[in-house]
Structures
1.
Amino acid sequence: MGCVLIAGVISSCKKDFLDTNPLDAVSSQTFWKSDDDVQQALTGVYSKLQSGFYSDTKVFLDAYSDNAYDRFSYFSFDVYTQGVINSTNVNGTFYNTPYQIIAACNYFLDNVGKAPISATAINEYSAEVKFIRAMCYFDLVQCYGGVVVYKTTPASVAAAKIPQSSASDVLAFVNSDLDFAIANLPATAYTGHAVQASALAEKARVAMFQKDWPTAVTLTKQIMNSGLFSIYSNYAGLFITSTQQNNPEIIFSTKYLGPNNPNNFDLYLGNYAALAPYGNLVNEYEMKNGKMITDPASGYDPANPYVNRDPRLGFTIQVPGDLFIDPDGTTFQHSDPLLTGFAPKKYVDLSHLPFSNAQLSDQNVIHTRYADVLLMYAEAENEVSGPDASIYSALNQIRQRPTVNMPPVDQTTYGTQSTLRDFIRHERRIEMALEGERYYDLKRWNLMEDKLSLMKNPGGIQLKFGEQNNVLPFSQTELTANPQLKQNAGYQ
Amino acid sequence: MNFKAKILAVHRSVQHHKKILLVMKLTTILLIIAFVQASAKGFSQKVTLTEKDATVENILRDLKQQTGYVFVTNNVDLTKFQINVDVKNVNIIQALTACFKGLPLDYKIVDKTVIIEERNPTATPKINNSNVRGTVVDETGKPLPGATVKVKGTDQNTVSDRNGNFSFESVPDNATLIVSFIGYSPKEISINGNLSSIKLQPTVSDLNDVVVVGYGTQKKVNLTGSVGSVSGSVITERPSSNLQDLLEGRIAGLTVVQPTGEPGVDQGSLQIRGLGTYGSNPAPLILIDGIAGTLSNLSPQDIDNVTVLKDAASASIYGSRAANGVILVTTKSGKRGTNTLEYDNSFGTTSATVLPDFITNSVTYMTMYNEALERSGRPDVYTQAQIDAYKTGNGSAQYPNTDWEKYYFHSAPIQNENLALSGGDSVSTYRASLGYQNQKSILAGSDYNRYNSAFNYTRKVSKIISIGTNTDYSYENIRNGVFTNDNEILLAYAQAPTFSPFLNDGSGRVAVEDYITNGTGNRTLYERQNNGFQLTQNYNVNSQAYINIHIIKGLDWKTTGAFVFYNQDYKFRQYAQPFNVYAFQPDANGNYTEVAHPLTNQLTQNSARDLTTTVNSTLNYQRDFGADHSIDLLAGYEQINNANTYIGADRYNYTNTLINEINGGPVTGDDNSGDQTQYALQSLFGRATYSYKQKYLLEGDIRYDGTSRVSAANRWGTFGGGSVGWRISEEDFIKKHITAISNLKLRASYGVLGNQDIYENGSPDYYPYQSILSSAQYPFSTSLSPGVLLTTLTDQDLHWEKTAITDVGLDLELFKGLFAATADWYYKNTTGILAQESDIPASVGLSPPVINAGAMVNKGFELQLSHQNHIGEFSYGVNGIFSLNRNKVTQALAPNPGVFQVGLPYGSYYIYVMDGIFNSQAEIDNSPKQPNSGDLKPGDIKIKDVNGNGVIDPGDRVSYSPYPSYTYSFGANVGWKGFRLDAFFQGVQGQKFLVNGWGIDPFLQGTAPTTNFLNAWTPQNHSQTTPAVYANGYPGVDGYTSTYFLKDASYLRLKNINLSYAFPKSMLRSIWIKGLTVFVSGDNVITWTKYPGEDPERAGSGRYAQFPQLKTYSAGLKVSL
C-alpha cells in the first residue's frame, strides 16, 4: 500500500517499513510468539495475586468479623463494623483488586491462542488462568452480589460500561471457568501453579456458598480420595516459609520469595501487630482437654486463662505473658500499645526477631489448604446426612495433627446435626483463625449480625451489621463512571 | 535518453588569473576528460600552432594554454581525427578554422568556450567576429556584478563581472542581448545599441519575488495560501545567537516566546496561530532546505530566508506533520557570476534589561522581617540588640547593606564572527562558511560557544542533469552552573542584605548568613556557582544531496537523500561542598561558626543520539499553454525514519572534585539507563496549481501519509487542501481605470492537516496504540520467574489529531510597491486531541487509555503593512505586523472548571478577584465571609464576592485568559547614501501572568521585599494595592490565589535599533574591497510596560523570579572581497 517505486535510490518499499515497536519493553505486537512468552504472561497473571486481599493483607479480612481489630485502620474496617458504610467511604480493595486480576486473566485468555503452542498446552495454561479468574469473580459475588462480568478485555471504556449480571449468572460463569480448570489442570500435588485440587476446592467453596451441599461433598471427597494432600504435622509451620515449600497440606497460595519479592507479614503482624485479635476469639479456644472454657468441668482458671488451652491458641495469638525474645535476650516490644491485649502470631516468623520498620518477609499466603477441605466436607456432609463417622474422622484429622494433638470430637456432646453444625463452625473458626476466612464464613452462615452485635471495638463502640451489609455498596466513583451499574439495595 | 551538449562556460577570474580547462565529452555515459591547470601567466590573443599528425586532444591542450579557452564536445570521438596545422599569430577563429579544415567538425564559440560538434551541413553558424562588450549598471549607475546576459535565440550566455562588465567574443550579427538580474526588470538591447551602460531598473514591486513553498518555490504573485516570509538580512539585524529568537515579531501569526536571556538555554518556543493542541506536540514542523531539523543549531548568518506556511492549503503538502504550521528555512547558496569572500563580525556587551528593586538597607530589612513574622504569628528572627548593632554600624564592613544584585549581575560579552566564501558560474555555485558565536552570561559560570560550518554546492552536470549538496554542521559547547534560569536567580534574590559574601576578617572565608541563630539555611548563589557544573555539548549535522533530471521542457525529476544527525553529551557534576561556609557575625568570643551545607556528591552523564534519514523524489511539471493557461504539477514520494538512542549513567560520592568522569567514581550505588525509540513515515503527495491569465488562481494539495505511530489499520490517512485566488487587479475595470492598484488579490483556502507527533503526558509517545507490557515476577518455586503484565487499556483505534484551517486573505499593493498590505482571517479547528480518559470504571482493572477526544479552536486575524520609498538618494520605509488570536476549548474529556472548560481558553487562570485591602476589622466583619475569615486582619487582601451570595466561595473565582489580546511589531528604516538606520519595535498586549515566589513573596526563604513594600498597607498608610507585609505563608494574602498575583505583562519595546554605514564602492575599489559596512546596534533598548520589577517577556506563569532578558549593545563590520 502506498508504495511507488520511483528510482533505484529509494530502497524498495518494504512492507514493514512502518512497523516499529518499542525496544525497551514487550508489547502485544511483538509478544505471544513462543511458549516462553505464554509462560511470562502467565507469570504476570500470578504476580497480580500479590495485591489486595490475595496478598499478605488477606489476613486483615478477619477485622471485618469478630476475630480481630484493624488497629491502624488500614482498610477502614471501623466503618464497616460499625455499619455506617456507604458509597463514599467504601474501601476500593474489595472491588479493584479482583478486577485488576481479572483484567490480567482476560488479557491472557484473549491472546494465548496466538501463541504457536499445542492446543493441550493452551488449555492447561488457560485452566490455571480461568481458575484464578473464577476465584476473583467468586470473591466479588461474596462481597457485592451481582457484578459486572467481562469475559474478555473490553474494547474501549465505553464498551466497559455495562450493567451488572445477577449473582447467579456470575456464579454460573465462575462454575464454567472452574469446570474447565478441573478438566484441564493436572491432578498433582501443589507446588506453585494451580492444580486440579485448587479448582475442586474453589468449586466446593462456591457450592457451600450456594448451599449445594451434595456438590460440595462430592468435590471435597474427590480431593480427599486423591491421596495427594494430607494434614501437615506442624501447625505453626504451615505459615512459615521454610516449611511451606511442597507442603502436603497447601492446595493454593500466593507465593513470595525474598529478598526481591517480599511481603510485609513480619512488619504488619510481627512489628506493628496491626491486626489485633479480640478476646472473643481467644475465648473460643478449647481447653487442652477438649472442653470449652465455659464448661465448669473444663478446668479453666480465669487467673491463668492461657494455660492448658488448645495449642493452636499459642500458635495463632500472642497472649499476655507470651514474650517475643530478641536474639540479644531482650524482650521485643510492639511500637504501639496493644489495644486488645493480644497480638497476631500466625504468619509471623519469630526467627526474624528483632523486627524493625524495614522488616521484610516472604511467607506464602494460603488460600486453600487440606484442613479447609476437610472442614468443608464435614460441614457439607453434616448438612446432607447429619453426623456420621466420616465427619468425625475429618474433624479429628485436624484436631489430632501432631503439634495440636487435641482430643477427638466428643461424639455424645456433638451428636446431632445441629450440635455438630455448631461444633464444626467452632472448629473452623479456631483452625482458620486470622487467615481471612471468617468474614466470608460468617456471611455464609448469616451470622454476621449475631456475632458482631456481641462485640465492642477497643474504643468501646458497639459493632453493628445491618441486613443491607450482607453486600457492600458500589463506590460513587464507580457508579458515576459506569451509569449502567445499579447500586445495591440498602445503599441507594 | 536524448543527451545534448551543454555549453559550459567557465569564466575567467580576473584578479587571480586562474584558468580552468575542461574538455568534456559525452558519449553514451558521461566521460570527462578533464585536466585542470593553473597558470600565473597571461594569455595571448594570438595563436601559433605547428603540429603534424597530432591528436585533437593535444591540439586543444595547446590552444587552451595559449588562449585560456574551454573546449567542449558533443558525442564526438575526437581520437579518430588527426590534425596537421601550421599557423602563426592568428586569432582563435583562424586557428580553429585551420585545425578543422577538411575534418567533419564544426565549432561554435560562446564567451570563452569552444563547442566542437560534428558538422551539420544545414546549420553553419554565422559568426560575428567582432567582440561584443558592455557594462551593466543599476538604476544609480553603479556597476551591477552577476547580471545574466543572454544572446537572444541562442544558448550563449554570460554573467557580468565585478565591475559590471561582460563580453562575447562572437555573436550572430544583429543579435539582441537579454540582460537580467534578480530584483530588476530584465532588459533587451541590440548589440548595435549603446552597451557601455546598460541600466537595469529595480522591480520595486515584490510581485516577482519567489517564495519557498513545500517541495518547491512559487511566485509570490501566484500564492493562494497564507504564507509569510522574512529574509536572512532582516533576521540578522539583531545580534542574538538563536535563530528562533530572531524570528520574534518578524512574521504575522508566528509567536516566539524567548523564555530567558541565559545563553545556551534561551531557545524560544515557536507557535503558529495559537496553541493548536494539548495532546500532541504543538510545535510547528521545521524544515531546513526541505529536511526536518531544528533551528537552534543554525547560524543566523547562513540563512537566506525563512518562510512560514500558516494555512492548511499551503501546509497540507506536509500532511500529518503540518497541523501546527510549517517553517521552511532556506540556507544561503552561492550566486552565479560572483566570487565573494565575506567576513562579518559583531562584538557586544549584554546586561539585564531589568531586575527587581529589593530593599538593601539592613536595618529596614531586619525591622520589616520581625514585623512581618509577628503579623504571621511567628517569633522574631532578629533581637533588638542585633538591629541596634546594624543601626549603629550602618553600612560598615561588619554591618553592611549588601546589594546582592549588584554583586552577582555583571555585564557580559557577546561575540559573533562569520566567514563565507561564495560564488558561482554558469554551471555551478558554491558557498562555504564558518561561524563562531560566544556569549557569556550576566551571572558567573555560564559560557556559550557555538561553531558552525556550512557547505553548499550545485552543479549543472549536463543540459539535463544537475546535482547539488548541502551540509550544515554545528557544535555547541554550553557550560552552566548546577542551576540555570529561575533556579539560579532565586538564590541571588533569597539573600539578606545583612551580610557580605566573605567574612569581615580578611580570611577570604565565605559567609552564607548573618547570624548562625537566624540563618535561613539557604545556600548562596556563590556557593552554588562553585558547587559543580553542567556541560552540554551538542553536535548537529544536516546533510543532503540531490540530483535533478530535466526530462523534457517543463518536467523535472528531483531526488533528494538526506540525513540529520544530532548528538548530545550532557554532564552534570555536583560536589558535596566546595568550601567551608560560615555565619557572617562572630559569636561573643569573636569566633565564626561553620554552617553545614552538604549536597549529594554526584556525577550524571547522558548521551543522546538522533538520526533521521529522509529520501524524497518529486516530479514537477510546469508549463504555460498559450498566454492564458499555466499549470504547475507536482507529485512526490517521501520516506523518513528516525532512531533516537540515549544512554545515561550516575555515580555518587566521588573522593575528589577533580574527577569528573564516570569511571572515577565508586561503583556502589551507581545507576544507569538507556533506550532507543524509532518511528517511520512514508508518504505520497501532490500539488496542482492552475492559473488563468494570472488572474484566477487555483491550487490543490494532497498528501497520503503513513506513520508507524498509529496501528496498521489506521496508519494511512489522506490530508489535503485547496485554495483559490482572484487577482482583481488584473480585471480590466481596475487595470484600466485604477492604475494606483498594482496588485489586489483575494485568497481563500481550506484544508485538513494531521499531527502524527503524538504525545503522552507532555513527551513523545512512539507506540501509543500498542499495549506495552510491564514486567512482573512471581516465584512458582524457589526462584523468581520473569513475567509480563498488561496495565493499561489501549485504544487500538487511536489516530492522529486533525486540524482544519479556513483562511481568507487579501493582498494589496499600491503604486508598484510603494504601499503593500496583507490581511488574513483564519479559523483553525483541531479535533481528536489526545487525552487520557478519566471516567474508566474500576471494573476494567486497567489504567485508562488515551483516546482522541478533545477539540480546540483558534481563530484570528493578521495584518501586515509596509511602505517603502526613495526620494533621490534618500530612502525610507515603515512596516507593521499585527496578530490577534483567540483560543477556545470546544470539547474536553476531563474538564477542569474555570481552567480547562468548554468555551474558555485552554489553561485559563481561575482565581479570586482582589477588591482592595481591608482597612479595619469592621470592614472585615461587614464584608462577605472570606475564605480565611478567621485569620483575617486589617491590611489583608479583600476578595470580591463576584456572585453576590454574601460568601466568598470557589464560585467567586473568575477565569482569565493566559494568552495575549494581540501582538504587534513595527519597524522603520531610513537611508541616505551609505547610511541606514533601522528601528524595530515589538509589543504584546493583554498578556497576563500569574506569578508567585521569590521576588514577589516577601521574606520567602529570607528574600528581601521589593521596595514597593515600603509603601505597603499599614494602619497609617491605607494602601489599596500592596497588602501589609507578611512573612511567607500568611494565609490572608497568599492562602488563595487572587488577582493580586496576576500581573499585566503587556509591553512594547524597542527591540532593536541599528545604524550602519556602507562605504562607497568607489572609495573601496582602490583597495580591492567590494563592500564594507560598519554598524552599531542596540537590542532590547527601551521597554514600556506595567509589569512590576522584572522583564515582561518571560515564559508562562509560575515563579516570579525569572532570568532576565538581555539588553545588548554591539558593533561590528561586514567586509566583502
Note: Chain A is about 40% helix and 5% strand.
2.
Amino acid sequence: MPDLATNYLGLALKNPLVPSSTPLSHNLDPVLHLEDAGAAAIVMHSLFEEDVRNDELMIDRFLVNPDSFGEAAGHVPFGHDYQSKLDGYLEQIQILKSRLAIPVVASLNGSSLTGWVELGKEMQEAGADALELNAWFMPGDPKVSGEALEDHYLALLRELKQVVSIPVSMKLSPFFSSLPHFVRNVEAAGAAGVSLFNRFFQPDIDLDTLSVVDRVHLSSSADVLLTMRWIAILRGRTGLSLAATGGVHTARDALKMLLAGADVVHMASALLLNGPQALKDVLAGIESWMETHEYESVTQLKGSMSQQNLPDPSAFARAAYLHALDSFTPPAGVRY
Amino acid sequence: MNKMLTIDGNEAVASVAFRVSEVIAIYPITPSSGMGELSDEWAAQGKTNIWGSVPKVVELQSEGGAAGTVHGALQAGALATTFTASQGLLLMIPNMYKIAGELTPTVFHVAARAIATHALSIFGDHSDVMSTRATGFALLSSNSVQEAHDMAVIATAATLAGRIPVLHFFDGFRTSHEVAKIVAVDDEILAKMLPAELIGAHRTRSLSPEHPVLRGTSQNPDVFFQAREAQNPWFDAFPGIVQQCMDDFGKLTGRNYKLFDYVGAPDAERVIILMGSGAETVQETIEHMNRLGERVGLLKVRLFRPWAPGALLAALPATTRSIAVLDRCKEPGAEGEPLYKDVLVALAEDLSNESPRFAALPKVIGGRYGLGSKEFNPAMVLAVFEALTATALKRRFTVGINDDLTGLSLPFDPAFRTAAAHDTFAAVFYGLGSDGTVSANKNSIKIIGDETDLYAQGYFVYDSKKSGAMTVSHLRFGPSPIRSAYLTGAGDAKFIACHQPLFLETHDLLVHAAPGAVFLLNTEVPADRVWAALPPAMQRQMVEKRIEFYVIDAYQVALEADMGRRINTVMQTCFFAISGILPQEDAIAAIKHAVEKTYGRKGRRIAELNYRAIDKTLACLSKVEVPATADSAATQAITSPQVTEFVRKMTLPLIAGKGDALPVSLFPADGTWPTGTAKYEKRNLALQIPVLETDLCTQCGKCVFVCPHSAIRAKAFPAELAEAAPPTFKTMKIRSKDYPADWKMSYQVAPEDCTGCTLCVEVCPIRDKSNVSRKALNMAEQPPLRAPEAENWDFFLKLPDYDRKIAKRNTIPGSMLMQPLFEFSGACVGCGETPYIRLATQLFGDRMLVANATGCSSIYGGNLPTTPYTTNAEGRGPAWSNSLFEDNAEFGLGMRLATDKLADAARTQLHGMALEVGDTLVEALLTADQSSEAGIHEQRERVAQLQAKLSHLATPAAEQLSAIAEYLIRRSVWIIGGDGWAYDIGFGGLDHVLSSGEDVNILVLDTEVYSNTGGQNSKATPRGAVAKFAAGGQPNRKKDLARIAMDYENVFVAKVAYGAKDTHTLKAFLDAESYPGVSIIIAYSPCIAHGVDMSHNHRQQDLAVKSGHWPLLRYDPRLRDQGKHPMSVDSAAPSIPFREFARNEARFTVLERQNPEAAERFMVQAESDARLRHQEYLELAEMALPEAEIAKQAEEASAPQETPNA
C-alpha cells in the first residue's frame, strides 16, 4: 500500500484528493458521502461578495425597512429565525466541522476592496481550517494596468491576512502575464498556497433576446493540461502549497497533476456529474497505478515531473508549443 | 423590577391575547391587522401560551368566518379570541349575539375604527363599537397603550368569571399604532388572573359526545322571551365581577382601575365624561387647569356595557354642577349619542330615587369629537369646559371642526397649551414611506424607552399615497407618562428633521418648530451654500424662531458607508447627536446596541456597515450659521392650473395639507366628488424620467401600455399642429400606413407625474444597432428636464386626441393612441395593477361604470384628496364607486341591472313616442349596432337628436324619456377588485354573479395577497410563499379561480399577464367587453408585497408565465357556437423550473432561510403543480367539443338501454 499522505496549506492530509468548491457542500449529506469516499479535505462552496451584498439589500429593502404606508408597515413577515446568507454560511461551516473528521476550507469569492474580505475572520471563528480566496476581477478599464490589477489582488489578500491567522490559499485565473512572478508576490503577501485555476462563468449571448446570459460549463479531462503545465513550472519555484484544479475526472488526470507537482488535486465537475463514487474511483486508480509502478508514496511521486526535474525543461515551455503545432496536419480533403 | 416594553397598542394587546388563547381566528382589517400578524408570527415561531401550548392561529375568508370559527371553538371548549375593526366588526355581529346569548366567555379585541358611510375611513372612532351595543357583549374601553395591555388581561379574567363575552376596544391608530413605553404583564400574573377552575368550568360547559347536550335550539313564542330574560342575573353581576378583576389586577400590578375612573378636583363643578384615548388628553388638560386654580374633573368610562349607573353616579363628585358627555361617534337623527343618553338616563333615574346623589339634576350637554381620527387636543377640551360655563347652554355640539352649516361646533383657541407641551421633548420628522424614516423613529423610541428612564411616545402620520407617501413622525419624550394623545402642535417641537429635500418645496416644515428648535436637513447642497438655496418663507421662519440649523448629505454618507441609498441610520444618528436628548456618547452607544439587536442573526455585516455609517455621520454633520436676515434668492415653483371653483376651494387646500381648516358648508353632503383631480398634484417624485430617441423609436406603443401612472402617452396628429410646439417638443414621422402619410406621432412624458419606475425603458424593445445600451427610451435626470418637458406636456395635452371611431384598438400601437381616463394614481412605483385599469379606461372609459372593491385599487382610485379617474374632452369618463369589500360583485351587478332596466324603460317609452319623435329616429335608436366605437358614436348622436326633440316637446312623457334617454347608449359595467375580494371575502357574491349571465366585466387584480392591508395571505397566495398570516409559508396550492369560472359554461374567462404577452392582454380585454354575458379577467399583478423591486415587474410576469405559475388562457363560450373549442391555452408548457421564477422574490426566499426543508418541499410541489395544471388545461381545451358533437355522443351513449345496477 503506497503512502498517499500529503501536506496542503500546512494541513496534513491523508491523500491528495480534495473536492473543490461546488454546491455539494450546501448540504451535509453529500459532504459526508465525499468523506466516506475518501476525500482528504473539503473546500466549501463559495460565499460570494455579491450574494452577501444582495442579501443585505433584500433584507433591508423588504424586511427591515420596507416600503410602508398608512395601512401597511411592510408586506413580508420577517421572522426572528430569519438567517442571512452570511450567517447561513457560517453555520454550515460549524455543521461541517462538527460532523467531519477532515479539514474544512471555506471559500470567499469577490473582488472589491470594501472590507468584505473581513468576513474571513468570521469564517475562522466559525471553525474553518483554512480559507480559499477566489478573487475574481474582470479588468475592463483600459486605464488599469496589469500591475495595478495584480496590486489589487494582493491588497485583498493582505486585507484578509490582517484579520485571519488560518492559512489562506489564493485561487488564481490563468490570465496573468507572468504567473510565477505574481505567485511570488502572493507568497510574499502572506498566502500559504495557490490553487490553479479558477473556472470562469463564461457569459454567452442569447441571440433571441439580445441579452447576455450565464451558462455553466463543466470541465472535461482536456482541461487538465493547462493546469498541469503551470503546476509543473511553479513546482520548486515557490514555497507555496500548490492545488491543481480543473478537469480532473480520472485517476490518470490526477496522477498527471501530482507528477507535475500538485500537493492536492481538486475535483468538481466529475463529482457533480457522477457523485462521490467518482472520487472513490480516482483514489483507487491512483493507488493501483502507484502500486503497479512501484511508487512508495505521494511525496515520492509529487513533482517528480516538474519542469525543474525534467531532463528537458523546455518541454513545458515554448519549444513544445512549436512541436505541438507541427504535429497537427490537416485531414485529407480539407482545403485551406 | 417591572419589565418595561416599548411597543405599539396592537402588540400590547396581542401579547396578552396570544398568551391566554388556544384558538385565534384572524382576518386582516386596518388598523387591527397587526394583532393577527403578530399572533401568526409568534405561532410560526413556536411561542406558547401560558399553559405551554402554541395557540392555533387560523385565517378565515372574512370576519364573519372568523367570528363563526371563534364561536365553534368556544363551543368545543377552547379559549378563543379574534381581532377586528370597523366593517369587520359589523360582520361579526350575528355571531356576537349567539356567543353572548349562550353566555360564552371570550374577548374580541377591537381597534375601534369609523364605519364607512359617505366615505370609507381607516381611522379611529367608536361607530363600530357602538353598533354592537345590543349584542350582549360587555364593552370595555382602554385609553392608552398601557391600558390596552392591562384591560386585555382584565377582560379575559372577567369573561371567564362572569361568562359574559367582552368586546375590548381601544382607539384605532391613536392607540393601536402609537408606540409607547409600558410596564409588561408577565406570565405569572396572567396565570394568577385566570384560575384553572374557571377554565375548567368553561370546558365542562363545552359540547362533548362524552356528556352531550343540545345548544342552539329554535324556540317558539311560548318560551323564547322567558329564556331571554333568564340570563339577566349574569348581566347584573358582571359589573361587579369586572371591578373585582380590576381590583385583583391592581393588587398584582399596582395599577388600579375602576369601572368609572374619576380624576380631577374632588370638588369639581364641571366634569367631562368620555371613553377612549381622548380621556388621556382631557386628563392632561384638567391637571393643567386645576393647577391654575380651576375646579374641573374627568370621568373615564371603562365598562360601557353592561351599564352600571350606580358606579357612574358614585364616581362623580357630589359637587358636580354641569357635565359634558363626549361621544366619538355619530347617530344621525338621534336625540343624542349613546354615552350622552345613558348618562342622562342615569342622572334622571337618580333624581327619582328616594335619596338621590344629586339634589338637582346637573346640566348635561352632549357633543361629538374625533370622528375618523380627527384631532382632539387640549384646546378643544378647554372649549368644552368653557361651553359648560356659558350662560346659554349648547345642548348638542361638535368640537374640532368648523361647522358653519348647522353651527354646532365650539370655537377653540389653537394657541392654548398645557404645561405638558413644555415639559416633554417633542420632535417631528418628515420622510418618505420608502426611506426608513418611520422604522428609524420607532427604533429611536425603543432606544430611549429601553435605555433611559424617560417615557416615550411615537405616532406616525401617512398621506394617502402608496408611491412616495409622505410620513410625518411625531415623537415625544418626557420624565412622566405621556398622556398627549394628539399631534405635536404648531411651535411645540424642539427638533425638526427633513429627511427628503423634496419637501422644502411643498411643505411648511417649520410650522411645528419651537423657538430655538434644532432643524436638521438632509441635502446634497454643501453647508456653505445651503442657506441661499432655502425658500424665502423658510428662511424668514428660521430667523424669527432662531433655529439651530444642521445639514448632512445623508445619501452620500450612506453610499460611502457601503449602504447604498439607505439613510435611516444616518438620519437617526444625527437626531441623537444634535437633539441633546441623551449625552452624545451614550446615544451613539445605544444606537449601536440597537443595530446589533435589529440585525442580530439576520445580518452581522449589515450591522457592521451601520456602525460604520454611524461613525461617518458624526464626521459629516455640519452646523450652518443662520444669518440675521432672510435673503433667499430661491424661487418656488409656481403652478396656477386652470381649475374649477370646487377644486380651488376644496381639492387644492386638501393637497396642500390644509383639510382640517375646511368648514362643513363646503363639503358635498352625499360624498360625491368630481373626477379628474390627480393632475393637480404635481409630486415630482422621479429622480430620472424617460427621454425619447426619435431616430430609434418604432412607435410600438409598449411604453404607454406598461406605464402604471399613465405618465407617458402617444398622440398622432396632422403635421401642421406641431408648428406651434415648444422648441424641445419631439415629433416623429408616423410609421404606420394606417394613418395619413403626412401625420406626425409624438410620445410625451409628464415629467412631474412620472414616478421614475423605469418600466417603459425596460420594456422598450428597440436598441441602437451599434450600441445596445441605447434604447429608444432612456432614463435621464429629471431636474434639468422638468421645466421644458412640463411645457411640452402642456402642449401635448392640447393636441387633439386621435379619433376613437377609427383607432385600431386591436393593436398595441393603435389602442395606445386612445386617451387614458385613469392617470397619475398614488399607486406604488411600478404597480402591477394600474396598467390593467388604465387599459380598460382607454378602451371603454367613456362609457364605463366601475364598482370597485375595497383594497389598493379603491385607495389609489378614490382616496382623497384626488382621484386618478378622469374625463375626456367631451366630459365623459368612468363613473366610479366603492361599496364594501365583501359585496363588490353584487354592487356591480346592481349597476348592470339598473342600466338594463332603465334602457328597457327608455326603449318602451321610445316606442310609445314614435309619433312625436319620428319613426326613423326611433327605429335607428332601437336597432343600433353598438358593437364598435363608430356605432356607439352614432348612437350618441342619435340620443342627442332625441334629447333635442324631447326638449321641444316638453310634455311629461318627453321629460320622463329625456331623463333616461342616455341609457340607450351602451354602457360597460366593470367590477374591479383584488384577490382578497375575489378569492376570499367576496367569493360568495362573485360566484353568484358569475352564474347570473348578466353583461358585467369582472377584473381581478391578482397580487396573490391582501396588498392594501399589508400583504396578508389570501387563497390566491401561491404554495411556498411567505405572507403575513402565513409566516410559516403557504402550504396549499393556489385556488384556481379561472377553472371555477369556466365551470359556468357561459362565462368568458381570461387569465392574463401583460408583462409576458401584452397583445394577449389587449385581446382578452376586448373580447371580455364584447362578450354579452359575464366576463372575468384574472390579471397577474406583481406587487411590492412579493419582495421584488417593481423595476423587475415584467421579468417576473414573464417568468411566472414561463414557469407555468401563471398560464395564459382564454375561454370564450362564443367559440362553441362557431364549432370551435372555447378554451385556448395561450402560453407554452412550463419551460423553466418554478424556482427560477421564485428565487427573485423575497416572499419565497425568506422561507428558504427560515425553514429550508419546507421551502424545498414546496418548490418541488409547486413545480409539479405548474406542470399538472398546464396539462389539465390542455386536456380541458381538448375536451371542449362543438355542441353538435356532444349531442351526437350523448345520443350514442344513450342508445344501449342498460338496466340500472344490473
Note: The interface with chain B takes residues 52, 55-88, 114-116, 118-119, 122, 210 of chain A (CB under 8 Å).
